[in-house]
Amino acid sequence: MSNQSNPSVLIFDSGVGGLSVYQEVKLLLPQVNCTYLFDNEAYPYGELSQEVLIHRVDMLISNYLAENPIDAVVIACNTASTIVLPTLRKKHTIPVIGVVPAIKPASTIANKAVGLIATPATITREYTKDLVRSFSSDTHVEMLGSTQLVEMAEAKLRGREVCIEVLAQILKPLIGNIDVAVLGCTHFPLIKEEIAQVLGNKVTLIDSGEAIARRVQSLLKLEPGNVYKERQAIWSSARPSDESALNYVLKELGFSPVQCLRFPGV
Ligand code: DGL
Q1: DSSP string, the chain
Q2: Taking the chain (266 residues) in consecutive chunks of 10 residues, what is each chunk's mean pLDDT?
């Protein structure tokens, strides 16, 4: 382990969505030194081919791990996790934790139907269809894939308001038809209040963030410890949009300003 009292965890996503998972990890394990890496050059992942996506995630994670002591990797992206985990786990000996849609807990509590809100890619993945077949055979799962919602979350994190009318238009197929909604994209907990406002208080929203934090805890065998006080690093594969607004929020979350990666091929 890199440092017994402050283990290092690399959290990865296409954009800022993985920060929702980061927040859960820090809530449970404040002693962890989290490095955040995001592939904004290839964002949005929900619109990429599987081959390109696997290649990008493999290249970025493997290059980073080759140069830095890391104890565990969290692929804080449903779109990537539903296809890249076998490749990464074959190559690396440290734990690689993925985030996949929380269909199982959702269907346990649903009386009516489950809504899966994810990226256009996640709702078509075999992995997702298997989750539904295995854990929700008795409860209908209505799938809704949207990149516009991902963009709304990116904008909100940079201080821009979510337009409730536009959100209601996107979520229209689910309104009144479900009692549990799975936030199957790590960007969506960032606009959870707005989604709740549109779907109404009879709909329970579920995401995977807390479960991932518990998985990190169990795989690294950690007890809650003292807060890691240093500023943590955040890396992007291209210059981020609206960088100063982004850095302002990142500072609040405990990061130093975004740095751009200099790997060959990126
Ligand atoms: N945050 C990602 C997810 O959980 C993907 C967003 C995107 O780049 O399309 O699926």
Answers
A1: ---SSS-EEEEEESSSTTHHHHHHHHHH-TT-EEEEEE-TTT--GGGS-HHHHHHHHHHHHHHHHHHS--SEEEE--HHHHHHHHHHHHHH-SS-EEE----HHHHHHH-SS-EEEEE-TTGGG-HHHHHHHHHH-SSS-EEEEE-HHHHHHHHHHHTTPPP-HHHHHHHHTTTTTT-SEEEE-STTGGGGHHHHHHHH-TTSEEE-SHHHHHHHHHHHTT----PPP-SPBPEEESSPPTTHHHHHHHHHHTTBPPPEE---TT-
A2: 84 98 98 98 96 97 96 98 97 98 97 98 97 97 98 98 98 98 98 98 97 97 92 97 98 98 66
Pocket lining for ligand 1, CB < 6 angstroms: 13-15, 17, 43-46, 77-79, 119, 122, 147, 150, 185-187
pLDDT for 262 equals: 79
pLDDT computed for residue 4 by the predictor: 74
How much distance in Å is there from the Cα of 229 to the middle of ligand 1? 29
* pLDDT at residue 1, rounded to an integer: 66
CB distance 263 to 235 below 8 Å: no
